[in-house]
């Protein structure tokens, strides 16, 4: 006789294997619960959820929906409200996560959990269960973002964001940073992805889960390259058949990091190509993480490995130069020279430098032509002179002294130390445009101001360290049994070591100072190292546990420098981010 139906309790759901799913079940017969969360932007800690939306589907049909706002019990940052449209007033009467979570778990019971960038949503749900004392039901989880990376070729979509995929397939539901709408869009994307799995002979739930995390035959064949590597901090180099460096990386544990390249967690297409060409892995042991990071940068700069990201290459760095001539102008250059000019940078690319230059042109009537002008021989003027955007030194309307006072002087001051006058003029221009309701033009000026301030803050921060001829710093090792020691000269790491347990660090410091690299400073704010190297050293020095042991002179920044505008820069960047979110960038 069939057993009578008995209503299960929440405890039964949590104590069982809800959502485990039968791996042999066909995808057509599998029940999915597609979920999306909106949060306050915090890391998963069991709170901060502001909205839950979920859709239950099976066989291409929608079986039900779950949607509710959630009172996070904390303030919602303004940029989150701009992004999602969820305000504190909306969530104030909403139930807390304590009341919502049991209902959601019941709704998802027995189903496979699906989310776009599933670690984010699942991480918040698991943290909420842990905080409230509920055992996590451990459902099967399918990540549509990971599935899209396996199914879609690189020339089909520029990225794997939910909005991009929904636009690519022209789904009836488009994401808008609200939980239920995004869950519905994810359902459409899921169905489009499942339609493609047949060509890969993926028909069951087990097949789909393995397809997402599949280890390629190349990874299995090359797994032996990770054998015998040391489990210490350092740099690893994948080398090809001709011993050319293919890829350079760094890790606190070389052996563990290299092994990860041969697991299912490694899905990057460029790394798969690199592994196919790799013949061996070389390990360079380092004293500590800072030395490893610096060596990685130097090796990438020296060998230009084809599979490292281009952003790490120093040849993209450009500087904005105020030329040394009777009528100075701005010029984009690749390197700093000892030519008496004033420089601003480094910039990561031409676009950022051009934005900063445009900000200076907005504030000061500096000439924009590229010709070298004579203080005695006139030349024809351009349209900018007629528009009042240039003092027309080409026609000798101003003397070199007046030009320096009205144009070149403020720019030189902004580049060399105090950007205050230029910032004040740009802020006044933003206020004028905003007052006239020309908001798009005001946003353009704001972007230029941010580029200028970002470069000024960065340059003065670098210069403050590179002016110090010699600096010795130390920080405790991870287990606090010794000291990691670094010797820095003009912003360059010249020696690194570790003081062993029980030994006085001064002995190690004396050895490092005696064997440290000798450097000869060159021109500019980064005279002995790349900007990237000096910035890595700065991050290490500015950690709370780092101790300054000795310095040849003071480490200081100008009191009227760009650093005082950090808050203004932060607000400008947050406003720019909010603008991007308003256009649906997720």
Secondary-structure blueprint:
Blueprint: H1 10-15, E1 31-39, E2 49-58, E3 61-69, H2 78-84, H3 88-91, H4 97-108, E4 112-115, H5 118-132, E5 141-143, H6 144-151, H7 162-169, H8 179-197, H9 205-212, H10 217-221, E6 234-239, E7 245-251, H11 254-260, H12 269-277, E8 280-285, H13 289-303, E9 318-322, E10 330-333, E11 342-347, H14 350-363, H15 383-386, H16 400-416, H17 420-435, H18 439-466, E12 471-476, E13 483-489, E14 492-499, H19 505-515, H20 531-541, E15 547-551, H21 566-582
Parallel strand pairs: 1-4, 4-5
Antiparallel strand pairs: 1-2, 2-3, 6-7, 6-8, 9-10, 9-11, 12-13, 12-15, 13-14
Folded structure, characterized:
- There is one protein chain.
- The chain is globular and about 85 Å long.
- The longest helix is centred in the last third of the chain and has 28 residues, at 439-466.
- The protein has 586 residues and is of the alpha+beta class.
- The strands form four sheets. A five-stranded mixed beta sheet has the order 3-2-1-4-5. Strands 14-13-12-15 form a four-stranded antiparallel beta sheet, sandwiched between helices. A three-stranded antiparallel beta sheet has the order 7-6-8.
- Mean pLDDT is 88; it is low at 1-20 and 582-586.
- The chain contains 21 helices and 15 strands.
- It has helices at 10-15, 78-84, 88-91, 97-108, 118-132, 144-151, 162-169, 179-197, 205-212, 217-221, 254-260, 269-277, 289-303, 350-363, 383-386, 400-416, 420-435, 439-466, 505-515, 531-541, 566-582; strands at residues 31-39, 49-58, 61-69, 112-115, 141-143, 234-239, 245-251, 280-285, 318-322, 330-333, 342-347, 471-476, 483-489, 492-499, 547-551.
């Amino acid at each position: 006789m069939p057993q009578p139906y008995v209503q299960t309790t929440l405890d039964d759901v949590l104590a069982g294997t809800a959502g485990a799913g039968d791996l042999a079940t066909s995808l057509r017969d599998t029940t999915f619960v597609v979920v999306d969360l909106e949060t306050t932007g915090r890391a998963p800690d069991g709170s901060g959820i502001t909205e839950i939306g979920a859709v239950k589907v099976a066989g291409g049909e929608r079986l039900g929906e779950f949607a509710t706002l959630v009172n996070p019990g904390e303030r919602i940052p303004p940029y989150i409200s701009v992004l999602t449209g969820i305000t504190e007033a909306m969530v104030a009467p909403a139930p807390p996560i304590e009341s919502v979570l049991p209902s959601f778990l019941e709704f998802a019971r027995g189903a496979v959990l699906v989310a776009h960038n599933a670690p984010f949503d699942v991480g918040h749900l698991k943290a909420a269960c842990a905080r409230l004392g509920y055992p996590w039901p451990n459902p099967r989880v399918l990540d549509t973002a990971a599935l899209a990376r396996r199914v879609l070729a690189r020339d089909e979509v520029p990225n794997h964001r939910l909005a991009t995929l929904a636009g690519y397939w022209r789904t009836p539901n488009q994401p808008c940073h609200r939980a239920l709408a995004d869950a519905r869009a994810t359902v459409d994307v899921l169905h489009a992805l499942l339609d493609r799995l047949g060509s890969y002979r993926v028909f069951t739930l087990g097949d789909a889960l393995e397809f997402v995390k599949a280890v390629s035959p190349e990874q299995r064949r090359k797994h032996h390259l990770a054998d015998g590597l040391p489990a210490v901090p350092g740099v690893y180099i994948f080398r090809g058949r001709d011993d050319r460096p293919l890829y350079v990386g760094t890790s606190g544990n070389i052996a563990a990091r290299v092994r990860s390249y041969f697991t299912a967690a490694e899905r990057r297409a460029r790394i798969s190509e690199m592994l196919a060409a790799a013949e061996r892995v070389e390990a360079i042991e380092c004293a500590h993480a800072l030395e490893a990071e610096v060596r990685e940068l130097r090796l990438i700069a020296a060998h230009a490995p084809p599979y490292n990201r281009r952003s790490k290459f120093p040849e993209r760095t450009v500087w904005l130069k105020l030329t040394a001539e009777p009528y100075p102008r701005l010029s984009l250059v690749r390197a700093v020279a000892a030519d008496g000019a004033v420089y601003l940078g480094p910039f990561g690319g031409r676009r950022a430098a051009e934005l900063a230059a445009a900000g200076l042109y907005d504030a000061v009537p500096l000439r924009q032509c590229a010709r070298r002008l004579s203080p005695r021989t006139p030349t024809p003027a351009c349209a900018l002179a007629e528009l009042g955007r240039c003092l027309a030194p080409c026609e000798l309307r101003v003397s070199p002294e007046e030009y320096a006072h009205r144009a070149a002087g403020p720019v030189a001051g902004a580049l060399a130390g105090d950007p205050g006058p230029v910032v004040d003029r740009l802020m006044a221009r933003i206020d004028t445009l905003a007052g006239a309701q020309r908001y798009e033009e005001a946003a353009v000026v704001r972007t230029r101001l941010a580029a200028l301030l970002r470069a000024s803050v960065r340059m003065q921060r670098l210069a403050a360290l590179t002016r110090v001829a010699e600096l010795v710093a130390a920080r405790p090792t991870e287990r606090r049994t010794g000291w990691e020691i670094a010797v820095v000269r003009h912003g360059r790491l010249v020696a690194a070591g570790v003081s062993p347990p029980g030994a006085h660090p001064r002995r190690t410091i004396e050895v490092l100072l005696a064997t440290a690299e000798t450097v000869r400073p060159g021109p500019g704010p980064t005279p002995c190292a790349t900007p990237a190297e000096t910035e890595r050293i700065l991050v290490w020095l500015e950690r709370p546990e780092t101790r300054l042991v000795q310095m040849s002179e003071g480490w200081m920044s100008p009191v009227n420098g760009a650093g005082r505008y950090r808050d203004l820069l932060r607000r400008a960047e947050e406003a720019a981010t909010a603008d991007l979110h308003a256009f649906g960038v997720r």
